[in-house]
Amino acid sequence: MKSSQPLPEKPLALDGKTLLQRYQSGDRTFKSFTLRNLDLIGADLIGADFSGANLSGTNLCLAYLNRVNFRDSHLVCCQLSGATLNQANFSKANLRDSNLHGASLQGAVLFGADLGLADLSDVNLIDADLRAANLCNANLTGACLRGANFREESLVDNTMLQGAILDNADLQGANLKGANLDRVSLKNANLAHANLNGAFLKGAHLEGANLQGAILSDINGSNVNLSHANLHDAKLERANLERAELFKANLTGAILADAKLGYANLREADLSTAKLTRADLNHAYLQLANFTESALIKAYLARADLSGANLSRANLFGAELSSATVFRVIFAETTMPDGRIAGI
Q1: How many Å apart are CA 284 and CA 286, to the nearest integer?
Q2: How many domains does the chain have?
Q3: Of 176, 184, 231, 324, which has the fewest CB atoms closer than 10 Å, so is most exposed?
Q4: What residues contact residue 106 under an 8 Å CB cut-off, 6+ apart?
């Protein structure tokens, strides 16, 4: 006779009233509970453990959830707008399609969390851990991500941001090294001093973004839109910016040594004091650009259009200008390719 196998235990289900009563009596552990579609608006559940729990569809708007453990929990389509979630643990939690508008997640751990299609607009994510998180097509408009970590060298999979909306977001000092920002919208975002070394920015929108002092070395930014962006003192060594849109961009003091800028639009851009040594600017659109005191040593400007550009005190020693358009270019104390000084 076969021995009967014990049936697997069903996850314990609670209604909202019972959950709050148990919490108020001192119970903090609700691991693997089924808590779907509950009304917990404004609830105080600070420090509770919901790891592995199913809270899909539950309304936690304006709830107090500091230091709550949501590790491995299911929060699909959960309402968390205006909730206080500082230092909460969402490691590997599923938050797809959830609404976190205006929530505070300062110092929260979202390692490996799935936030695809989530509404994170105006969220406070200062110092949050977003390594290996999925933010594809999420809305982060106006979010504050200062000091947030998106990257760790030891990880194979890093934060997925493809198609995310980060317009007006504050990412000052954020670590986005090697991040895939394909089709990401970062219009008017603050990325001052952020680390985007080796990031993939092909086709991304950064119109009006603040990238002052940012590290953009070795990026793939072909067809990226950086018109009106502030790139003052940014580091762009070896950056691929072919066919990039840089109309009226501020590149004063930027380092663009060995950068690829073929066919890029730099009309009316300010490149004064920029370092463009060995930069490839073939067929680039440089009309009315300001190159005052810039270093263009051995730069490749073949067939570039420099009409009306200001090259006062620029250094063009060894530069290639074959077939370049130099109509009404300002040469004043300019070091020419052959070493002579023009415009004295």
Answers
A1: 6
A2: 1
A3: 324
A4: 86, 87, 124, 125, 126, 127, 128
Q: Which two tokens stand for residue 279?
A: 């930069």
Sequential pLDDT tens for the chain (344 residues) = 455 565 455 668 999 999 999 999 999 999 999 999 999 999 999 999 999 999 999 999 999 999 999 999 999 999 999 999 999 999 999 999 999 999 999 999 999 999 999 999 999 999 999 988 999 999 999 999 998 888 765 433 577 888 999 999 999 988 888 888 988 999 999 999 999 999 999 999 999 999 999 999 999 999 999 999 999 999 999 999 999 999 999 999 999 999 999 999 999 999 999 999 999 999 999 999 999 999 999 999 999 999 999 999 999 999 999 999 999 999 999 999 999 999 76
Look at residue 297 and tell me if it is in a domain: yes
Q: Does 235 reside within a domain?
A: no
How much is the pTM?
0.89
* Closest C-alpha to 72, from 99, 87, 56, 53: 53
By the 8 A CB rule, do 303 and 284 touch?
A: no
> How many Å apart are CA 248 and CA 281, to the nearest integer?
17
Residue 296's domain spans which residues? 251-344
φ, ψ of residue 230 to 5 degrees: the values are: -100, 105
Q: Using CA atoms, how far apart are residues 331 and 83, in angstroms rounded to an integer? A: 60
